[in-house]
User: Fold this.
Amino acid sequence: MPTPSPHHRTGFTVIEVLIVTMIVGLISAIAIPRFHSFRYKNQLKAAKNQLKADIRQTRTWSTAVKTGTNIPEHPYNTALAAYAVHFDPASDSYTIWEVWEDENGNLASYETETPDERKIPHALPQGIQLYRVFPANTDIYFSVPDGRLSGSLGSASFSDGKIIITLQLKTYTIEISVLEFGDVS
Assistant:
């Protein structure tokens, strides 16, 4: 049986394996961060689209309800005055709630005078933060039955004609603008 000559060995040299390993490492170093960036941006866009849809739905509800609806045995039972969106950056959530008024025209507050069964809570997807609402502490109100937009701070609710909501995931942010005339972008 002939013995193989040292000049006819098969396989890869150490240099070839190192070069291929370096090329794979370089491609991975470029591709993986771009993939994460793409994924984070898409998660933010999905959260933005859901929040925009919920704000638009709130406005639709306000135009579909008849005035004079009441809650039996509740101090604020004269009329449904508005639907609103309350933002809670501390818990990265927002709540759609019904704003009722009493017989003197006083509006029920979100925290103490609105029963829980009149609130619909929404949590943002895991990892996404309700980074900022500007102007701060602004709730968005849509009046019944015309859907007219107002804010909980009156005319101070709008900065340059809009309320800005900023969502954040890792180092990426995305903004939602609720314009003074009710459009959401």
